[in-house]
Known about the structure:
By secondary structure, this protein is an alpha+beta fold. It has 3 domains: 5-100, PCRA, domain 4 (Orthogonal Bundle), CATH 1.10.486; 103-209 and 217-235, Double Stranded RNA Binding Domain (2-Layer Sandwich), CATH 3.30.160; 239-302, Beta Barrel (Thrombin, subunit H), CATH 2.40.10. Helix content is 34%, strand content 17%. It has 9 helices and 9 strands. Strands 8-7-6-5-9 form a 5-stranded antiparallel beta sheet.
Amino acid sequence: QVLAPEQGQEPSSSPFDARQRRGLVDFLGLINGLREQLAEVDLTALIDVVMERTGYRTALLESGDVDAEDRLDNLRELRGMTADFDGPAAETLTPFLESAALVSDQDALSEDDQQYLTLITLHQIKGLEFPVVFMTGFEEGVLPHIRSLDDPEQLEEERRIAYVGMTRAKQRLYLLRSFRRRLAGAPQANPPSRFLLDIPYELVDTPARERVTAGGRSPARLSTLDREAAAAVAAGDRAADLEPPPFKAGDKITHASFGKGIVVSCTAKPGDYEITVAFTDAGVKRLLHSFAKLEMAGAPTA
């Protein structure tokens, strides 16, 4: 009824004034336009279209909000998740939304007589206890988050949050990390979290593996190697014997996933270089040179 005049129908009384009706008409046009795109593009392209037509991404970039970068990271991660859904968006949108749907911790805890797994964030878990707890993501750049690595106060806050998560386990606690994970659609490898080094060694039980891992490392030495890697990360001020810095501030580079950017800094880390890049589309990122595969913009290809 509100949109009747614009749809060729007789107008009726409405609680909205003319300006509000125009806004509703524009919104309806936006929704109808996006519906038309469903049969023409895949999910990844659909998200790009939504960001462009709504102006949401641009609004975040220009807002100056302290949470804007986190929201942009969430959008990039959402976009990366669509890579697992091939085909027109009209066919894959519903399965994608079903797979991405989150159940709140209160909903998950409502049926005490059922056996189930509870998926919950560290910020939501305070005050709860479980017989067995699995904590994932114990990697530098994940826990602690990459934006906390150069901020002592934020680093200690993440250490406190990690401790809260660990103490939710009444019987068994499993701490997990990935050797490689996909972030924003790009594979990335991170060293083990420095927080692992804070755990007394005698309290850690590392089950033996039945096969030798890639690279020929003995399974019995995996926990020792992980602790040594975490120790090297925690002592990040020490310089390693490295080749000359691969980039300098001001260099223009390209990345397969993040696009074009300008190098802000190149800092020596144990056995590697951490390169801070301001990307045109993806914002500021800290990347390890050995994994990032950065290239000079305009560099000739072999």
